[in-house]
Every structure is written in C-alpha cells, then in structure tokens.
C-alpha cells in the first residue's frame, strides 16, 4: 500500500493549481461587489409583490418625517416673515405739539436699537383710515379727528425678534411723560407661533425617530426572513468554503436597495402630499395677507433623504446578518 | 494528510459518537470508512470538514491542528477539502454549471475561468451537455455526479465522500468509484464512507471500520477476510 502511494504524483498542500495574484484578487473582489450590487437588485424582483409591499411600507414610514420636515421648514419661513414685521407703534397724546413731536423723534433717533422712526400725523392717519375703511362718508360728519398721531418705530435687525421688540417696547414705555399715550407691539401671536414651531420641532423629532426605528425593524425583519428562507443555500455556500463576508454581501446590498427605493417613494409621496395641500395652505395664507410660496425639498434635502434611507436599510440588514447569518452552520 | 489522535466526540454530554479514535491517512492515499449505521462514520467526516468539533483529542490536517480553528479560517480550510454528500446538497434553483462553479466563484475566479473549468469538471463526470439544466430535472445519479464535479473543480488535495454510491445502481457505483480512483491516481487523498461491503471488496484499498464509535479495524478488507 505504501509503495502504491509512493508511485503517485502527490499534490501540494495548496488546493490551487493556478495561483491568483494579489491584483487579480483585488480586481475579482471589486468585480464581485459590482456583480452582487446589481444581482441583489434583480434578486429583489424575483418576488415583486413582497418587494413592492416592503418598499411601499418603507416609503410611507419615511415620507412622514419628510413631510414634517417640510412643514417645519415652511412654518419657520412664515414665522420669519412675521417676525420681521415686528414694528412698534407709539400712539401720541392728542394735546402734544408738533415741536414736542420733533423733539421726541430726535430722542428716539439716538436709541441704538431703533432703525427708523416714521411719523404719521393725525390728519394722515385719518386719511389712511378713510381710504382703508368703508366709513369715509360717515367720518366726514365727525366734529373733530378722533385719531391720535403715531410714531412707527422699526427696530434694528438684531432687535427684530419677539424678545428684542418686547425689550425695546419696555424702554419706550418710560417715555410716557414726553407725550406718548400708548406703546403697542403685537407680540402675542409671534410668541404663540414660535411656541407652536418649537413644539412642532419636538413632535417632528419624536415621530421621526419612531418612524426611522420602524424602518430599521421592517428591513431587519425582511432580511431575517430572507436569510431563514435561504438557510439551505447558506449552508451549502459555507460547506464549499464561503466566508461570512462573502455570504452576507448580497443581503447588505438588498437592505441598502430597500432603503434607497423606500427613500425614493418617500420623496414622491412628499411631493404628492404637498401638492395636495397646496391650495388649502395658499387660501390660509391669503387670509393673513401673506405672499407665500411653499418650499419643497431642495436637491440637498432629497440627497440627504435618500442617503439616510439607504444607510438605514444597510444598517438594518447588517443587524440581521450579524444576528442570524453567522449562526447558520452546516449540519 | 489527516491525523486523528485519541479523538472523541460526545453529543449533549452523554452520547459518545466517537471514542478515542486514532488513525492516519497519508497524502495521496485512498481509503474506505465503513461500519453500520450509527457507527460514527458521518461524525468522523464532519470532524474533518469542521462541521463538528472534537470533544477531546487532536485532529491534524496537512500538518495543521484544526481542533480549535475559528472564524474565516474554517472557510479557507474547507476550500482545501472536496466534500461529496449522500443528499448531494445542490442548489436546486441554480443551474448545474452554477452549482459546479460555486467553489471558484467564492475564490474570486473570473466568469470565463469558472465556466471553462466547470465544463471541464462536468466532462470528467460524464455530464457534458447538462450544464444548463436545473439539478431537480436530473436523476439521482446525475445529481450525485454534479456534486462530485463541484467537489473536485478546485482540485483539492483531500476528497471526502459520505455514502457517494448510496442511491446508485451497482454499475453506476462502480463508475463513480473508478472516477475516485482516477482522481487518487493524480495524488488526491480520498476517504470514502460507505456501508456497501460488496463494493469495498471489489477494490483493494485500506478500510477503516467503525463500530459504536470505536475504530475496530484498519487494513485491507480482503486481508481481514483472510482472502
């Protein structure tokens, strides 16, 4: 028997008769990645209904944070517009003379947080009121002009916030002895709007986190089912020498594809929802006499949405792969 | 090539599938592993192919202790072993060509090289023209030969076969064994687990006999039978 062995041509310890060079291996690995990337996409459509359902659910889950983001973005723009219009009206006493008014204007001009002061005389105020209201004829019957003169104070840009305007109004109230009857700055609605925006941000963040978690769970569960369905194939691959890295690659790509496609659907759904809400929002803005164009997702935001969705799909898939694939061993 | 030193395998802490087994299969040697069902043949093959780990003892493959090998090293080591299974372990939704080319795909060979060598391996096992079939449309014998083609495609130094002729008729069984013999002629070490004593008797090769997990005989079947 020993002679029998001796006479044979003995193979070397290595199984490879043709050795592959380092460059050959790198090129083969890259080729494998490209191939797996596209193969995983076509693998998705072997079960089109299941894939479509998964992608639609992901799209729905991702579209809500995306729509909320748009709502926040637009609400912030509206608040910005209104915030910029935070003028302070100083209603002057009726018995104040023109000279005193000029002194007051000069005094206000010294304030560093005041950008400009516009004087509206009692006569101008009455004329404006007549033009804007429907009572022009009725006003002619009045014995005297009931309207006071007004100084419209516009704060400097840095003070053009709810807090800044409030602070300035406080300072101006101290000038009551110099002919100011009433200081009026309508801050309530700005503060309310800002509080709503802050609350909206908190709600958006909370819901977005929950929905993104649901995306992780959906993709992770889908990949888990894929792995369990292909258990036999995974066992065979391991038996013929495949590493975990080689086996997990298609699953990671499939997860990323799910995310990317879900992100794409979320983008489309966001556009559909904004288009649907457009006329309602514009009517509402009209009631507040605001010139407003709804801002959509810009290019950078769309890329961010797709990148986040793809990354989520990849991460969810990675979690599943680490959890289930590595545990499958051939028996 | 393979060295077993007092190897035992105990399942669930009570069932001893192998008990203190010692043997040495030299490089380029061909041997049969026989014994009744449950004697420990499959466990021994699983230990070599790292599907199981020994409870005690040492297994050396090609000079390397593989008793405690871990991670990707298991995969790399399996690339040095051709494995043939009684149930073929083929991927039924892939073509014969894809099944045979799997070990080369894993090793990163080009598509052209995989196809060229897969066709050559299929020719060697007599399945030319069946490369585009799905394994499910082949007979049991043909499926077995697809499994053999897959096991030998990267020309491993060691070939393990678990009941390779279990589902085949005597003529086909002999053909398969002749194929193993020719592979062995080229220096491949071959270990075949079978309980077909008639087949073993027809060929003059070393036979390892297991009974209840013990190696009870190591020698030529004919010598043992006093022929």
What can you see in these coordinates?
The complex is a heterodimer of chains A (331) and B (227). Chain A is an alpha+beta fold and 331 residues long. Helix content of chain A is 69%, strand content 7%. Chain A has helices spanning 2-6, 22-44, 48-84, 98-110, 122-132, 136-140, 162-173, 188-229, 231-239, 244-287, 299-324; strands at residues 88-92, 114-120, 150-155, 180-184. Chain A has a 4-stranded antiparallel sheet with strand order 2-3-1-4. In chain A, 24% of the residues are buried. By secondary structure, chain B is of the alpha/beta class. In chain B, helix 3 runs parallel beside helix 5 and helix 4 crosses helix 5. The two termini of chain B are 29 Å apart. Residues 223-227 of chain B have low confidence and may be disordered. The A-B interface holds A 1-2, 5, 8-17, 20, 24-25, 28-29, 31-32, 232-233, 235-246, 329-331 and B 26-29, 49, 51, 62-63, 72, 75-76, 78-80, 83, 89-91, 102-103, 106-110, 150, 154-157, 184-188, 206, 220.
Features:
heterodimer, A: 331 residues, alpha+beta, four-stranded antiparallel sheet, 11 helices, 4 strands, 69% helix, disordered N terminus, B: 227 residues, alpha/beta, six-stranded mixed sheet, 10 strands, globular
Topology diagram in text:
The complex is a heterodimer of chains A (331) and B (227).
Chain A: H1 2-6, H2 22-44, H3 48-84, E1 88-92, H4 98-110, E2 114-120, H5 122-132, H6 136-140, E3 150-155, H7 162-173, E4 180-184, H8 188-229, H9 231-239, H10 244-287, H11 299-324
Helix pairs in contact in A: 2-10, 3-8, 3-10, 8-10, 8-11, 10-11
Chain B: E1 2-11, E2 15-25, E3 30-34, H1 41-48, E4 56-61, E5 64-65, H2 72-78, E6 81-84, H3 96-107, H4 111-124, H5 140-152, E7 158-162, H6 170-185, E8 189-193, H7 197-202, E9 206-211, E10 214-220, H8 221-224
Parallel strand pairs in B: 3-8, 3-9, 6-7, 7-8
Antiparallel strand pairs in B: 1-2, 1-4, 4-5, 9-10
Helix pairs in contact in B: 3-4, 3-5, 4-5
